[in-house]
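chain below, 192 aa
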Amino acid sequence: MTKIGEVLDVVADTFGTTPEYLRSEKRDLGYANARCAFYFVASHLLDFSGEEISSEIGRSPSSCITLAKRAASKIVSDTDFRCKLSRIIAKIPISDYNSKVLFEEIFEGCEDGSLSAPAIREKLKKRRTRDQFNDPDKERYDQVNRSDKLYSARVDPSIPGLIDDFRKKSGMTKREITETALREFLERHDKS
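prediction:
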């Protein structure tokens, strides 16, 4: 697993500076871009938290997240920034399958002009869509989240219908059903 300090070293090297300079209070444009790239890679590619990033660079978590979002505009408008960011990404071992695919899509979209900064920000939101699957080459996921014919649900297909029928007959909402079931489960296990 990549350590956050290693990411800062790679970013500093790519932008021609030192990690100490990036931790300083200096605000020159070149170093601001380097910090922006660091925040972007650390938060969006490697999933470090705002607190982890801020403690490494000596800034507040909110400023780190803001600059990570600002990087989307730089990716679209600044070719030099995009090239340096792709070199950084190439030097860092990425284990997340979806991040690799996502960044390939973003860079291709920027090259052909089909992606805007808001579109990049939307793509980077932390949620999985139906077209994102775990890496099928990893043994842990080879039988899960398959998009091919081999995938089969492990839930009885009649259960959702039974739940809807019960909800209609009882007049309870799904939340009330869940809360009641949980309360009964906890009561049953507290007695034992």
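The CA atoms of residues 8 and 115 lie 27 Å apart. Confidence is low (pLDDT under 50) at residues 127-131, 140-154.
thats it, cya
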